[in-house]
Write a structure and sequence with these properties.
The chain is α/β, with parallel strands linked by helices. It is built from 20 helices and 17 strands. A five-stranded parallel sheet has the order 2-1-3-4-5, sandwiched between helices. α10 links the parallel β13 and β14. The termini are close together.
Length: 483
């Protein structure tokens, strides 16, 4: 994804000239006033070296540079880098062939204010063109998107409301699609905020029960007697008191019908299965046991979420093994967001579009540096926390602005300590080493102001080796393409 020109150092300008006088003033205004990133070269050969190492949005060249005239350099860039905006500063007008390669002319002596305005307009025109191409691509994906829902980022996959690109989520959703074709119950484990309810709903919507009742029953924080009534219903006894028991709500004396009967033919999602008391566990097991003796499809399909692993609770006697065996037709485990960082970028793009539309905020996008910070953050609240943060950012960024690092919550700006990183990563030594290497490479690039040659020297790597690590770990100060 190519990050559009704008604030927070976004919008990279290459100045090819002898940097003195008005050129220095122009560079100062570009960096300090407009927030652009400026690279400098004093010759055509040096300009080509810079372009080989960096993604550049606009080149402004002095016709008087050594080795080749500026207009010839820009004419060559039209072929090698057609996406780059090209501006020439000259005393004598260039020939007709070279001028066809240009976006704009400026005359000597250089007026820094005029040059900054031309550069700003050139980058804006490039952004309009980029957005037009991107919109055309996204419209082609609209047939694969649920009505009324923001489109996922190009290249990502979707299962219900879940958007992902990571291998971990691809494997989980592949199993979930298989589960959807059956009537078997499903246990979905995962930390709070990972999307268990969304996965359960996607399974229901992809199953033969689609269009039948879908009910969600929260299990945590509800008194035992009330939860029993909500699950199984109540009936009035001869003495006029209510009692709850599986199946009792279907009798003639029932005063309320539990969700497990109301959803007959459909699906019930039990949120936070580990919160069930021993009494509720026993009654749920008895309900499932009675249904197991019936013929045909189960009257209701149960999908259950658990915010903590159930097997340790079974081992400690806090959760019934026989109930777990009844519910585990399929067992799915949603990874934490910190363990599938590849999904942060497409989720962020989805949430920005979604909340910008709902809140009617014309946010222009997210800076590359801000996205780097979001990817590096541990996200203890997982996808739910990410969406809440993006919703806040959309509001505070303001119309017509980009979300930058200055808008992020303070906890997301500072890089996490290495000791914390080790605790948050996977269980193998390789996971720990790779995570620490990613942080070291990132911090070195930050220290070197994303000069890859200096960072490579500091790390004892070749430029190619450093570039490979940047791609491997997704540490892109600038995106690699317009897509």
């Amino acid at each position: 994804m190519h990050t559009p020109p704008g604030m927070d150092g976004i919008g990279t300008v290459l100045v090819v000239a002898a940097i003195d006088g008005p050129w220095s003033t122009m560079i100062h205004q570009l960096t300090e006033t407009h927030g652009y990133r400026v690279l400098c070269a004093r010759s055509s050969a040096e300009a080509h070296r810079v372009l080989a190492e960096h993604i550049v949005d606009l080149v402004i060249a002095d016709q008087r540079i050594s080795e080749a005239t500026g207009d010839r350099l820009l004419a060559a860039l039209r072929i090698a880098h057609p996406e780059i905006v090209r501006v020439l500063v000259f005393e004598t007008a260039p020939d007709e062939l070279a001028s066809a390669a240009l976006y704009q002319f400026l005359h000597h002596p250089l007026d820094p204010a005029q040059a900054c305005l031309v550069i700003q307009r050139g980058l804006e025109a490039r952004e309009v063109s980029r957005r037009h191409r991107r919109l055309a691509r996204e419209l082609k994906l609209s047939d694969h998107t649920a009505a009324g829902e923001a489109r996922p980022a190009p290249g990502s996959q979707r299962f219900g409301a879940l958007v992902y690109v990571s291998d971990a989520m691809t494997a989980v959703c592949r199993q979930a699609r298989i589960a959807a074709r059956t009537d078997l119950p499903v246990v979905i484990e995962g930390e709070p905020g990972t999307g268990k309810a969304a996965l359960a709903r996607a399974i229901h919507d992809a199953s033969p029960r689609q269009g039948r009742p879908w009910l969600v029953q929260r299990c945590a924080g509800i008194p035992e007697a009330m939860l029993i009534a909500e699950l199984f219903g109540l009936r009035r006894t001869a003495a006029g008191t209510g009692t709850g028991s599986p199946g009792a709500a279907s009798t003639a004396g029932a005063t309320s019908v539990g969700v497990l009967r109301v959803a007959a033919g459909g699906t019930v999602y039990l949120d936070d299965l580990a919160a069930l008391s021993p009494m509720v566990q026993a009654q749920l097991w008895r309900f499932l046991q009675d249904d197991a003796h019936g013929a045909g499809e189960p009257p209701v399909r149960i999908l259950a979420g658990a915010s903590q692993p159930l097997k340790p609770l079974i081992k400690s006697g806090q959760f019934r093994r026989d109930l777990f065996e009844r519910l585990r037709g399929f067992e799915l485990a949603l990874p934490a967001l910190r363990d599938r960082r590849d999904d942060i970028a497409p989720l962020t793009e989805l949430f920005v579009h979604r909340h910008a539309e709902v809140l009617r905020c014309a946010v222009r996008g997210l800076s590359a540096r801000a996205l780097d910070k979001l990817v590096a953050y541990a996200w203890p609240g997982n996808v739910r926390e990410l969406e809440a943060e993006i919703r806040r950012l959309v509001v505070i960024a303001g119309d017509g602005e980009y979300i930058t690092t200055q808008h992020l919550s303070p906890t997301m700006i500072a890089p996490p300590r290495p000791s914390a990183l080790v605790r948050e990563t996977g269980k193998t030594l390789k996971d720990h080493v790779e995570h620490l290497e990613r942080q070291l490479v990132y911090e070195t690039l930050e220290h070197c102001q994303w000069n890859q040659s200096k960072a490579a020297d500091a790390l004892g790597l070749s430029r190619v080796g450093l570039a490979n690590k940047i791609r491997r770990y997704g540490l892109l100060d600038e995106p690699s393409s317009d897509s």
